[in-house]
Protein backbone atom coordinates (compact mmCIF):
# COMPACT_ATOMS: atom_id res chain seq x y z
CA UNK A 1 0.00 0.00 0.00
CA UNK A 2 1.25 3.44 -0.86
CA UNK A 3 -0.96 5.49 1.46
CA UNK A 4 2.05 5.96 3.72
CA UNK A 5 4.55 6.85 0.99
CA UNK A 6 6.43 9.92 1.96
CA UNK A 7 8.60 12.32 0.05
CA UNK A 8 12.02 10.88 -0.79
CA UNK A 9 14.00 11.45 -3.95
CA UNK A 10 12.98 14.23 -6.26
CA UNK A 11 9.36 13.35 -7.10
CA UNK A 12 6.53 12.91 -4.66
CA UNK A 13 3.92 10.16 -4.97
CA UNK A 14 0.28 10.93 -4.18
CA UNK A 15 -1.14 9.34 -1.06
CA UNK A 16 -4.39 7.35 -1.39
CA UNK A 17 -6.23 10.24 0.28
CA UNK A 18 -5.00 12.69 -2.38
CA UNK A 19 -6.09 10.49 -5.29
CA UNK A 20 -9.29 10.86 -7.32
CA UNK A 21 -11.73 7.92 -6.95
CA UNK A 22 -10.54 6.52 -10.31
CA UNK A 23 -6.88 6.83 -9.31
CA UNK A 24 -7.59 5.14 -5.99
CA UNK A 25 -9.36 2.18 -7.64
CA UNK A 26 -6.46 1.92 -10.07
CA UNK A 27 -3.86 1.95 -7.25
CA UNK A 28 -5.81 -0.64 -5.28
CA UNK A 29 -5.87 -2.89 -8.32
CA UNK A 30 -2.12 -2.49 -8.75
CA UNK A 31 -1.56 -3.18 -5.04
CA UNK A 32 -3.68 -6.33 -5.34
CA UNK A 33 -1.34 -7.54 -8.12
CA UNK A 34 -4.10 -7.42 -10.77
CA UNK A 35 -2.54 -6.72 -14.16
CA UNK A 36 -3.55 -3.55 -15.99
CA UNK A 37 -4.70 -4.32 -19.55
CA UNK A 38 -4.84 -1.96 -22.57
CA UNK A 39 -8.57 -1.21 -22.35
CA UNK A 40 -8.57 -0.58 -18.59
CA UNK A 41 -8.67 2.95 -17.21
CA UNK A 42 -5.21 4.21 -16.24
CA UNK A 43 -3.83 7.59 -15.15
CA UNK A 44 -2.33 9.57 -18.03
CA UNK A 45 1.01 9.68 -16.25
CA UNK A 46 1.04 5.86 -15.92
CA UNK A 47 0.46 5.57 -19.68
CA UNK A 48 3.17 8.16 -20.40
CA UNK A 49 5.69 6.48 -18.11
CA UNK A 50 5.09 3.14 -19.79
CA UNK A 51 5.38 4.57 -23.30
CA UNK A 52 8.64 6.23 -22.21
CA UNK A 53 10.12 3.10 -20.63
CA UNK A 54 8.89 0.55 -23.19
CA UNK A 55 9.94 2.69 -26.17
CA UNK A 56 13.40 3.20 -24.63
CA UNK A 57 13.58 -0.53 -23.99
CA UNK A 58 12.57 -1.32 -27.60
CA UNK A 59 15.09 1.18 -28.99
CA UNK A 60 17.78 -0.44 -26.79
CA UNK A 61 17.08 -3.86 -28.27
CA UNK A 62 17.26 -2.52 -31.82
CA UNK A 63 20.30 -0.25 -31.37
CA UNK A 64 21.82 -3.08 -29.30
CA UNK A 65 22.09 -5.18 -32.46
CA UNK A 66 24.70 -2.81 -33.89
CA UNK A 67 27.76 -3.44 -31.67
CA UNK A 68 27.35 -7.18 -32.29
CA UNK A 69 26.45 -6.84 -35.97
CA UNK A 70 29.94 -5.39 -36.30
CA UNK A 71 31.41 -8.86 -35.62
CA UNK A 72 29.24 -11.19 -37.73
CA UNK A 73 31.67 -11.17 -40.65
CA UNK A 74 34.65 -11.68 -38.36
CA UNK A 75 33.37 -14.45 -36.05
CA UNK A 76 36.18 -17.02 -35.64
CA UNK A 77 34.18 -20.13 -36.64
CA UNK A 78 30.96 -20.98 -38.49
CA UNK A 79 29.40 -22.14 -35.21
CA UNK A 80 30.19 -18.83 -33.51
CA UNK A 81 28.87 -16.91 -36.50
CA UNK A 82 25.56 -18.81 -36.42
CA UNK A 83 25.21 -18.27 -32.68
CA UNK A 84 25.90 -14.57 -33.00
CA UNK A 85 23.43 -14.19 -35.87
CA UNK A 86 20.76 -16.05 -33.90
CA UNK A 87 21.35 -13.78 -30.91
CA UNK A 88 21.12 -10.62 -33.03
CA UNK A 89 17.90 -11.87 -34.62
CA UNK A 90 16.50 -12.46 -31.14
CA UNK A 91 17.22 -8.81 -30.26
CA UNK A 92 15.25 -7.71 -33.35
CA UNK A 93 12.37 -9.90 -32.17
CA UNK A 94 12.56 -8.35 -28.69
CA UNK A 95 12.33 -4.92 -30.28
CA UNK A 96 9.21 -6.03 -32.17
CA UNK A 97 7.45 -7.45 -29.06
CA UNK A 98 8.25 -4.26 -27.18
CA UNK A 99 7.13 -1.83 -29.91
CA UNK A 100 3.91 -3.87 -30.12
CA UNK A 101 3.41 -3.68 -26.34
CA UNK A 102 3.98 0.08 -26.59
CA UNK A 103 1.38 0.38 -29.38
CA UNK A 104 -1.27 -1.15 -27.09
CA UNK A 105 -0.95 2.11 -25.11
CA UNK A 106 -1.95 4.14 -28.16
CA UNK A 107 1.59 5.27 -29.03
CA UNK A 108 2.77 5.33 -32.62
CA UNK A 109 5.81 3.25 -33.53
CA UNK A 110 6.74 5.57 -36.39
CA UNK A 111 6.63 8.63 -34.14
CA UNK A 112 8.72 7.01 -31.40
CA UNK A 113 11.31 5.80 -33.93
CA UNK A 114 11.42 9.29 -35.43
CA UNK A 115 12.22 10.66 -31.95
CA UNK A 116 15.10 8.18 -31.73
CA UNK A 117 16.44 9.35 -35.07
CA UNK A 118 16.21 12.99 -34.01
CA UNK A 119 18.24 12.22 -30.89
CA UNK A 120 15.23 13.00 -28.66
CA UNK A 121 14.66 9.45 -27.35
CA UNK A 122 16.92 7.54 -25.01
CA UNK A 123 18.17 3.98 -25.32
CA UNK A 124 20.52 2.06 -23.05
CA UNK A 125 23.80 3.91 -22.54
CA UNK A 126 25.79 0.69 -22.94
CA UNK A 127 25.27 0.57 -26.70
CA UNK A 128 27.21 3.77 -27.18
CA UNK A 129 30.49 1.97 -26.45
CA UNK A 130 32.48 0.31 -29.25
CA UNK A 131 33.15 -3.42 -29.64
CA UNK A 132 36.84 -3.59 -30.44
CA UNK A 133 37.71 -7.28 -30.48
CA UNK A 134 36.10 -10.73 -30.60
CA UNK A 135 36.18 -11.14 -26.83
CA UNK A 136 33.86 -8.11 -26.65
CA UNK A 137 31.19 -10.46 -28.08
CA UNK A 138 31.75 -12.65 -25.04
CA UNK A 139 31.73 -9.72 -22.62
CA UNK A 140 28.60 -8.20 -24.19
CA UNK A 141 26.75 -11.52 -23.87
CA UNK A 142 27.96 -12.16 -20.33
CA UNK A 143 27.90 -8.65 -18.82
CA UNK A 144 25.39 -6.72 -20.93
CA UNK A 145 22.83 -9.49 -21.36
CA UNK A 146 23.60 -10.57 -17.79
CA UNK A 147 22.70 -7.09 -16.50
CA UNK A 148 19.66 -7.00 -18.78
CA UNK A 149 18.40 -10.31 -17.36
CA UNK A 150 18.66 -9.12 -13.76
CA UNK A 151 16.53 -6.10 -14.70
CA UNK A 152 14.12 -8.00 -16.95
CA UNK A 153 13.43 -10.99 -14.70
CA UNK A 154 11.88 -8.52 -12.28
CA UNK A 155 10.00 -6.78 -15.10
CA UNK A 156 8.16 -10.04 -15.79
CA UNK A 157 6.07 -9.01 -12.77
CA UNK A 158 5.53 -5.45 -13.97
CA UNK A 159 1.95 -4.21 -13.57
CA UNK A 160 1.13 -3.65 -17.26
CA UNK A 161 -0.02 -6.95 -18.82
CA UNK A 162 1.41 -6.69 -22.37
CA UNK A 163 4.84 -5.52 -21.07
CA UNK A 164 4.92 -8.28 -18.48
CA UNK A 165 4.06 -10.98 -21.02
CA UNK A 166 6.64 -9.68 -23.51
CA UNK A 167 9.25 -9.92 -20.74
CA UNK A 168 8.52 -13.60 -20.03
CA UNK A 169 9.45 -14.53 -23.58
CA UNK A 170 12.41 -12.16 -23.75
CA UNK A 171 13.93 -13.53 -20.54
CA UNK A 172 13.99 -17.08 -21.89
CA UNK A 173 16.07 -15.92 -24.85
CA UNK A 174 18.33 -13.66 -22.77
CA UNK A 175 19.52 -16.64 -20.70
CA UNK A 176 20.86 -18.27 -23.85
CA UNK A 177 22.56 -14.98 -24.77
CA UNK A 178 24.25 -14.67 -21.42
CA UNK A 179 25.54 -18.25 -21.53
CA UNK A 180 26.86 -18.03 -25.08
CA UNK A 181 28.76 -14.89 -24.06
CA UNK A 182 30.26 -16.52 -20.98
CA UNK A 183 31.23 -19.60 -23.00
CA UNK A 184 33.17 -17.44 -25.49
CA UNK A 185 35.18 -15.95 -22.62
CA UNK A 186 35.63 -19.29 -20.86
CA UNK A 187 36.99 -20.90 -24.03
CA UNK A 188 39.39 -18.02 -24.59
CA UNK A 189 40.62 -18.18 -20.99
CA UNK A 190 40.99 -22.00 -20.99
CA UNK A 191 42.32 -22.66 -24.45
CA UNK A 192 43.50 -19.29 -25.67
CA UNK A 193 46.97 -17.85 -26.08
CA UNK A 194 48.33 -15.30 -23.60
CA UNK A 195 47.31 -12.61 -26.08
CA UNK A 196 43.73 -13.91 -26.21
CA UNK A 197 43.54 -14.05 -22.41
CA UNK A 198 44.70 -10.44 -22.31
CA UNK A 199 41.91 -9.58 -24.78
CA UNK A 200 39.33 -11.02 -22.38
CA UNK A 201 40.66 -8.95 -19.48
CA UNK A 202 40.73 -5.86 -21.70
CA UNK A 203 37.04 -6.38 -22.67
CA UNK A 204 36.08 -6.70 -19.02
CA UNK A 205 38.07 -3.59 -18.12
CA UNK A 206 36.23 -1.55 -20.75
CA UNK A 207 32.70 -2.92 -20.27
CA UNK A 208 32.53 -3.45 -16.49
CA UNK A 209 31.60 0.09 -15.46
CA UNK A 210 29.29 0.77 -18.42
CA UNK A 211 27.45 -2.48 -17.57
CA UNK A 212 26.90 -1.24 -14.00
CA UNK A 213 25.54 2.04 -15.42
CA UNK A 214 22.83 0.13 -17.31
CA UNK A 215 20.77 0.02 -14.12
CA UNK A 216 20.38 3.79 -14.18
CA UNK A 217 21.30 6.51 -11.69
CA UNK A 218 21.49 5.70 -8.01
CA UNK A 219 18.13 5.73 -6.24
CA UNK A 220 18.43 9.20 -4.75
CA UNK A 221 19.12 10.64 -8.23
CA UNK A 222 16.44 8.64 -10.07
CA UNK A 223 13.50 10.99 -10.73
CA UNK A 224 11.14 8.29 -12.03
CA UNK A 225 11.75 5.46 -9.58
CA UNK A 226 9.46 6.35 -6.75
CA UNK A 227 6.31 6.70 -8.83
CA UNK A 228 7.22 3.70 -11.00
CA UNK A 229 7.70 1.59 -7.87
CA UNK A 230 4.34 2.76 -6.49
CA UNK A 231 2.67 1.74 -9.75
CA UNK A 232 4.66 -1.52 -9.70
CA UNK A 233 6.04 -0.77 -13.17
CA UNK A 234 9.42 -1.19 -11.47
CA UNK A 235 9.57 -3.88 -8.79
CA UNK A 236 13.08 -3.24 -7.53
CA UNK A 237 15.11 -0.06 -7.42
CA UNK A 238 18.10 0.74 -9.64
CA UNK A 239 20.55 0.26 -6.76
CA UNK A 240 18.98 -3.01 -5.60
CA UNK A 241 19.25 -4.49 -9.09
CA UNK A 242 22.82 -3.23 -9.53
CA UNK A 243 23.81 -4.93 -6.26
CA UNK A 244 22.09 -8.19 -7.30
CA UNK A 245 24.01 -8.13 -10.57
CA UNK A 246 27.36 -7.55 -8.85
CA UNK A 247 26.71 -10.27 -6.28
CA UNK A 248 25.95 -12.86 -8.93
CA UNK A 249 28.64 -11.77 -11.39
CA UNK A 250 31.74 -11.58 -9.20
CA UNK A 251 31.92 -15.37 -8.59
CA UNK A 252 31.63 -15.89 -12.36
CA UNK A 253 34.42 -13.35 -12.86
CA UNK A 254 36.63 -15.24 -10.41
CA UNK A 255 35.83 -18.56 -12.10
CA UNK A 256 37.04 -17.05 -15.36
CA UNK A 257 40.30 -16.10 -13.67
CA UNK A 258 39.83 -12.40 -14.41
CA UNK A 259 39.51 -9.26 -12.31
CA UNK A 260 37.24 -6.22 -12.30
CA UNK A 261 38.72 -2.74 -12.84
CA UNK A 262 37.60 -1.77 -9.35
CA UNK A 263 40.09 -1.82 -6.45
CA UNK A 264 37.22 -1.33 -3.97
CA UNK A 265 35.36 -4.46 -5.02
CA UNK A 266 35.37 -6.84 -2.05
CA UNK A 267 33.09 -9.20 -0.17
CA UNK A 268 31.49 -7.66 2.91
CA UNK A 269 30.86 -10.35 5.54
CA UNK A 270 28.54 -8.10 7.51
CA UNK A 271 26.15 -7.09 4.71
CA UNK A 272 26.44 -10.37 2.81
CA UNK A 273 27.06 -8.38 -0.39
CA UNK A 274 30.02 -7.14 -2.41
CA UNK A 275 31.08 -3.56 -1.76
CA UNK A 276 32.11 -1.71 -4.90
CA UNK A 277 33.68 1.59 -5.90
CA UNK A 278 32.06 4.86 -6.93
CA UNK A 279 30.53 4.90 -10.42
CA UNK A 280 31.64 7.81 -12.62
CA UNK A 281 28.22 9.38 -13.07
CA UNK A 282 29.64 12.26 -15.12
CA UNK A 283 30.53 9.72 -17.82
CA UNK A 284 26.99 8.27 -17.66
CA UNK A 285 25.33 11.67 -18.10
CA UNK A 286 27.69 12.60 -20.95
CA UNK A 287 26.66 9.41 -22.78
CA UNK A 288 22.97 10.25 -22.15
CA UNK A 289 23.53 13.71 -23.61
CA UNK A 290 24.75 12.10 -26.84
CA UNK A 291 28.48 12.44 -26.18
CA UNK A 292 29.45 8.77 -25.76
CA UNK A 293 32.06 7.23 -28.08
CA UNK A 294 29.48 5.89 -30.58
CA UNK A 295 26.19 7.84 -30.11
CA UNK A 296 26.32 9.62 -33.45
CA UNK A 297 27.40 6.52 -35.35
CA UNK A 298 24.61 4.39 -33.84
CA UNK A 299 21.84 6.84 -34.73
CA UNK A 300 23.22 7.42 -38.23
CA UNK A 301 23.33 3.64 -38.83
CA UNK A 302 19.74 3.13 -37.63
CA UNK A 303 18.50 6.04 -39.72
CA UNK A 304 20.26 4.71 -42.83
CA UNK A 305 18.72 1.25 -42.28
CA UNK A 306 15.22 2.72 -42.04
CA UNK A 307 15.73 5.01 -45.06
CA UNK A 308 17.20 2.27 -47.23
CA UNK A 309 14.45 -0.18 -46.23
CA UNK A 310 11.58 2.18 -47.06
CA UNK A 311 11.04 0.71 -50.52
CA UNK A 312 10.80 -2.82 -49.07
CA UNK A 313 8.09 -1.76 -46.60
CA UNK A 314 6.24 0.15 -49.32
CA UNK A 315 6.41 -2.83 -51.69
CA UNK A 316 5.19 -5.23 -48.97
CA UNK A 317 2.30 -2.92 -48.14
CA UNK A 318 1.34 -2.46 -51.81
CA UNK A 319 1.36 -6.26 -52.25
CA UNK A 320 -0.76 -6.80 -49.12
CA UNK A 321 -3.26 -4.12 -50.25
CA UNK A 322 -3.49 -5.69 -53.72
CA UNK A 323 -4.06 -9.16 -52.23
CA UNK A 324 -6.78 -7.85 -49.93
CA UNK A 325 -8.49 -6.06 -52.83
CA UNK A 326 -8.46 -9.29 -54.88
CA UNK A 327 -10.03 -11.19 -51.98
CA UNK A 328 -12.71 -8.50 -51.65
CA UNK A 329 -13.41 -8.60 -55.42
CA UNK A 330 -13.73 -12.40 -55.34
CA UNK A 331 -16.14 -12.37 -52.35
N1 LIG B 1 20.79 4.36 -20.40
O1 LIG B 1 14.60 7.87 -13.20
P1 LIG B 1 15.44 6.83 -13.84
C1 LIG B 1 19.39 -5.64 -24.03
C2 LIG B 1 17.46 7.43 -18.08
S1 LIG B 1 18.63 -4.10 -24.06
C3 LIG B 1 20.10 5.39 -20.92
O2 LIG B 1 16.09 5.82 -12.99
P2 LIG B 1 13.68 4.80 -14.93
C4 LIG B 1 20.28 -6.02 -25.11
C5 LIG B 1 16.00 7.14 -17.82
O3 LIG B 1 15.37 6.64 -18.97
C6 LIG B 1 17.83 -3.99 -22.49
N2 LIG B 1 19.22 6.11 -20.18
O4 LIG B 1 14.57 6.12 -15.00
C7 LIG B 1 19.98 -5.65 -26.39
C8 LIG B 1 15.51 8.51 -17.40
O5 LIG B 1 15.36 9.34 -18.54
P3 LIG B 1 13.97 10.10 -18.93
C9 LIG B 1 17.65 -2.59 -22.04
C10 LIG B 1 19.04 5.73 -18.91
O6 LIG B 1 13.01 4.65 -16.25
C11 LIG B 1 20.87 -5.96 -27.43
C12 LIG B 1 16.70 9.07 -16.64
O7 LIG B 1 17.84 8.37 -17.09
N3 LIG B 1 16.86 -2.66 -20.83
O8 LIG B 1 19.16 -6.35 -23.14
O9 LIG B 1 12.82 4.79 -13.72
C13 LIG B 1 22.05 -6.67 -27.14
C14 LIG B 1 16.54 8.91 -15.14
O10 LIG B 1 16.57 7.53 -14.74
C15 LIG B 1 19.72 4.66 -18.32
C16 LIG B 1 15.87 -1.81 -20.54
O11 LIG B 1 15.60 -0.88 -21.27
C17 LIG B 1 20.63 3.95 -19.12
N4 LIG B 1 21.35 2.92 -18.66
O12 LIG B 1 14.75 3.61 -14.76
C18 LIG B 1 22.30 -7.06 -25.85
C19 LIG B 1 15.12 -2.08 -19.25
N5 LIG B 1 19.33 4.55 -17.03
O13 LIG B 1 13.16 9.10 -19.70
C20 LIG B 1 21.42 -6.76 -24.82
C21 LIG B 1 13.84 -1.30 -19.11
C22 LIG B 1 18.45 5.52 -16.82
O14 LIG B 1 13.31 10.48 -17.64
N6 LIG B 1 14.04 -0.04 -18.47
N7 LIG B 1 18.28 6.24 -17.93
O15 LIG B 1 14.41 11.25 -19.78
C23 LIG B 1 14.14 0.11 -17.13
O16 LIG B 1 14.11 -0.84 -16.38
C24 LIG B 1 14.25 1.51 -16.60
O17 LIG B 1 13.79 2.41 -17.59
C25 LIG B 1 15.71 1.89 -16.16
C26 LIG B 1 15.72 3.38 -15.75
C27 LIG B 1 16.10 1.04 -14.97
C28 LIG B 1 16.70 1.69 -17.30
UniProtKB/TrEMBL annotation:
It comes from the Bacteria. InterPro entries: Aromatic_CoA_ox/epox, Ferritin-like, Ferritin-like_SF, PaaA, PaaA_PaaC. It holds the Pfam family PaaA_PaaC. PANTHER family: 1,2-PHENYLACETYL-COA EPOXIDASE, SUBUNIT A, PHENYLACETIC ACID DEGRADATION PROTEIN PAA. This is Phenylacetate-CoA oxygenase subunit PaaA. The gene is paaA.
Amino acid sequence: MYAQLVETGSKRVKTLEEMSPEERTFQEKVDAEIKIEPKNWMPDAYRKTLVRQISQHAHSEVVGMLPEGNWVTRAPTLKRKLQLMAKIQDEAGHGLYLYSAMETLGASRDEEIEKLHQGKAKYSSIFNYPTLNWSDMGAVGWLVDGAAIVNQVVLQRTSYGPYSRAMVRICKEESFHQRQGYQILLDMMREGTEEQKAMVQDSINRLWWPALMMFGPSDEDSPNSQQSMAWKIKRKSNDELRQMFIDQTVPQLEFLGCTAPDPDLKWNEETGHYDFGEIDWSEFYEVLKGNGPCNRERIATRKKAIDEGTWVRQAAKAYADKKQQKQRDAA
